[in-house]
Q: What sequence folds into this?
């Protein structure tokens, strides 16, 4: 449904997207996962015909983005990273205008606006000015606008950023509904569990390049098992904890210096946890926390890139470590 | 929501449909911020009152012409240019808030975004001009040539529309609302004040007169004066229309190209 070949986008010295190729079959949900500045939005803009790539081609539903952008536009629904809704209009007016711009007859535009408002639980607020909406309501309205054209392909750039946990769950359920009705979805996210939850296939990008590709399970397999994580009370104990865990684990020990987490992949989760507890206790090291968990996609990121997800600063400063999520 | 449902179509031709939708959107937005219209109207009204009462007795005129009859055409044209700044502000605002990205992702005629914007702003200028004319009448403006007045206002609206496109182009380049607001008025002041808007050009320094006599604001103001005084507007009206058309011929493609390229 979406086929991208060798797409590259330069912004001056910055290669925001660097030779990216992707195939997304019909009715698949593809998660595009990457930290700030990875190039997610830039790639989305290329696919949505908002930005011409410096090199490469993209074909959506059989239509080339450069040769026939309008055919592409009539297949896609885009909800960008920042809700593109009109503060000075009501929710309903926002959607009706989008309907009118799809060249729908008035009655049909009205009907679809109602339908989208209903589906996104905005019916009660439909006739209020969007200025009075909460952030979550604006996001939902923006998503509603992307549905008015009944797109076969939905492109969602960080659809749940800024939503509270409940609203996020609602939105996930809603997206699953759309997919069960046949939509193909490309969604970007920094929430690792979101890609895990929604996506059939996950593409991890960093610094504009694809660094990994696969199902959530395949990606987790690359970490090499469950993880025992210990958090010493004192920074001075970090090295000793690392040495102790190295004797217990089956893979390389990873140390998060900012959060004071030390973790190592293990085979037998319970046995390893007990061993770790005993060893650390005998060494007289005080711990804040000790636990065993299934690897998160954060761990996957770390395993693939050898560093935590980091923000690429536009002026080439030292990358800033992103706070680990757990 | 079945993904494969074919979209139905309006009976209207595509571009016209989209232009109507975009114009309607922008007018709706205007109605939601009446305070903006009020302030945009108060300013020229204050100019009418101020210039009339301050300079009313002190500027030399052709015999038999009251200053207010001289002033109202000037203020009408001044409004054309000042109002065009709103196009820049509105468009940069849409760019920043992501509205333009939304439109660009729709299978619509993208030229309708700019046409709808300039249309709505021209309609808004027309409203302001009507109010100014009414206020003018209240403080002593007189004409026996209502047809001429209407033609004159139409010339001013045409110029407003042309300048809307100039500022739309400007906005697409600067992209930032504050810069647009500040920058938009730079070319407006010399055009409005080095002109016959408030005072006759022959009182200006000699080096300025060739510019002042032939620039779009002066020829339009003079054409409206002639039309409201029942005199043939001749060269001035032709030049005014010529300016409007020439500006549109240059700036519509410029703005459209910039819009396409982003
Ligand atoms: N218009 C632009 N001009 C210059 N550089 C840009 C522009 N847009 C993006 N970039 C740069 O391109 C890179 C990728 O940006 P992009 O917005 O695609 O990242 P992202 O993955 O969407 O990040 P985030 O998670 O923060 O939204 C960044 O380094 C960014 O600074
Ligand atoms: Mg982004």
A:
């Amino acid at each position: 449904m979406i086929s991208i070949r060798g797409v590259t986008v330069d912004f001056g010295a910055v290669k925001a997207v660097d030779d990216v190729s992707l195939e997304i079959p019909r009715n698949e949900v593809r998660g595009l996962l990457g930290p700030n500045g990875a190039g997610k939005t830039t790639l989305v803009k290329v696919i949505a015909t908002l930005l011409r790539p410096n090199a490469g081609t993209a074909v959506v539903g059989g239509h080339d983005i450069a040769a026939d952008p309008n055919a592409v536009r009539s297949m896609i629904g885009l909800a960008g990273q920042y809700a593109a809704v009109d503060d000075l209009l009501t929710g309903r007016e926002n959607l009706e205008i989008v309907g009118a711009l799809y060249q729908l007859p008035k009655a049909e535009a009205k009907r679809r606006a109602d339908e989208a408002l209903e589906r996104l639980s905005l019916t009660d607020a439909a006739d209020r000015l969007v200025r009075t909406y909460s952030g979550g309501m604006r996001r939902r309205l923006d998503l509603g606008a992307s549905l008015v054209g009944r797109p076969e392909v939905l492109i969602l750039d960080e659809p749940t950023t800024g939503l509270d946990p409940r609203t996020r769950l609602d939105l996930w359920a809603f997206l699953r509904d759309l997919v069960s009705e046949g939509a193909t979805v490309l969604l970007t996210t920094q929430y690792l569990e979101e890609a895990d939850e929604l996506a059939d296939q996950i593409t991890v990008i960093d610094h504009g390049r694809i660094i990994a590709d696969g199902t959530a399970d395949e990606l987790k397999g690359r970490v090499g098992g469950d993880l025992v994580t210990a958090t010493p009370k004192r920074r001075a104990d970090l090295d000793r904890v690392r040495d102790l865990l190295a004797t217990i684990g089956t893979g390389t020990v990873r140390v998060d210096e900012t959060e004071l987490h030390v973790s190592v992949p293990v085979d037998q989760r319970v046995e390893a946890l007990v061993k770790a507890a005993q060893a650390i206790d005998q060494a007289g090291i005080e711990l804040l926390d000790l636990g065993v968990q299934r690897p998160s996609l954060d761990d996957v990121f770390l395993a693939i890139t050898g560093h935590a997800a980091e923000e690429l600063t536009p002026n080439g400063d030292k990358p800033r470590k992103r706070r680990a999520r757990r | 929501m079945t993904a494969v449902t074919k979209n139905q179509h309006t009976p209207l031709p595509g571009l016209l449909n989209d232009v109507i939708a975009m114009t309607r959107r922008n007018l709706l937005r205007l109605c939601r911020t009446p305070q903006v219209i009020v302030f945009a109207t108060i300013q020229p009204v204050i100019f009418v009152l101020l210039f009339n009462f301050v300079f009313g007795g002190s500027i030399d005129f052709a015999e038999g012409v009251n200053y207010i009859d001289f002033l109202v055409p000037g203020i009408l044209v001044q409004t054309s240019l000042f109002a065009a700044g709103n196009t820049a502000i509105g468009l940069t605002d849409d760019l920043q808030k992501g509205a333009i990205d939304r439109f660009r992702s729709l299978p619509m005629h993208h030229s309708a975004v700019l046409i709808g914007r300039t249309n709505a702003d021209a309609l808004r200028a027309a409203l302001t001009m009507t109010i100014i004319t009414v206020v003018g009448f209240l403080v002593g403006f007189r004409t026996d040539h209502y047809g001429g007045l209407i033609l004159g206002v139409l010339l001013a609206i045409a110029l407003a529309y042309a300048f809307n496109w100039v500022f739309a182009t400007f906005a697409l380049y600067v992209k930032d609302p504050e810069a647009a607001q500040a920058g938009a008025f730079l070319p407006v002041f010399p055009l409005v004040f080095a002109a016959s808007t408030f005072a006759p050009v022959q009182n200006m320094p000699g080096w300025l007169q060739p510019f002042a006599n032939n620039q779009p604001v002066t020829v339009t103001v003079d054409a409206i004066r002639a039309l409201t005084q029942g005199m043939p507007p001749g060269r001035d009206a032709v030049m005014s229309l010529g300016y409007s058309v020439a500006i549109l011929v240059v700036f519509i493609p410029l703005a459209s190209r910039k819009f396409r390229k982003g």
In short: Confidence is low (pLDDT under 50) at residues 310-326 of chain A. The longest strand of chain A covers residues 14-24. Chain A is about 35% helix and 25% strand.
